[in-house]
Model the fold of this input.
Amino acid sequence: MTDTPTPRKELFVWTSPPGTSVPISRSPFRVAIGTPGGLSGNSWRIWTSGQDTYIACRDNFREFKVSLHASGIWRVAFTTEALNQRPELELPDGDRVLQRYTPDKSSRDTAVLAYQIVVLRAGLYLTPDRRQNWPTSVVYVEPPIEPDQMAVLTVAVVPSEAPMRISQGTLGAVIAVLPFGPGRTLQVVATHDSDANVKPLIIQAYNQVPQSFRFVMNEDSVFVVYGNRPEGMPWFSAVRNSDFAAQ
Done:
């Protein structure tokens, strides 16, 4: 008779300097799914300014960022700098805002999900030599091993200063807890989950790319997907063309 191993409940996290306390409480906070010596996804910077919080990719996809304003109006928008460099990104109505959303934060007991970064196995495409200019402060979060799993970074506004509790049976960890107004914190939660619901959506979006664009996409090209959960929360994902074209 053999004992059944107990499933792990927490993800491995790499910090610099080693031994840095997790969850991180400093701003700005930088995070990536992957390992320091292996493949990773892109890095994301999360920082606060007063009672406002901003989320942006810092090594690629700098064209847009998420803004969580204390006014209660949150948005995903192209940056002014991006529009100055790439006027074709301007929306038909001249606005640079892709999405405005006003979540209900009135509950004193319920966390409000603000944004998600979804990293499939095909989203792990950056090698260490392509990350040489990354700051050492980037926190790496263990990626899934199984090909049908994905890593998810969820940014949530929590009516508490205590780290959120991870659902029983979920492999995950709270990796950052930042101030977000009186009695609230902005928390970044990393989890592993099945990609069964998300991957078909990305494949569907990929298949809608015109052939003229696919013709010029090389193996290092990256396909970016931006969407919304049923409750209106935006999510982002990126996959390498060479790893995803045959799906």
Remarks:
- Residues 16-244 form one domain.
- The first strand starts at residue 13 and ends at 14.
- The CA atoms of residues 122 and 244 lie 6 Å apart.
- The longest helix spans residues 199-207.
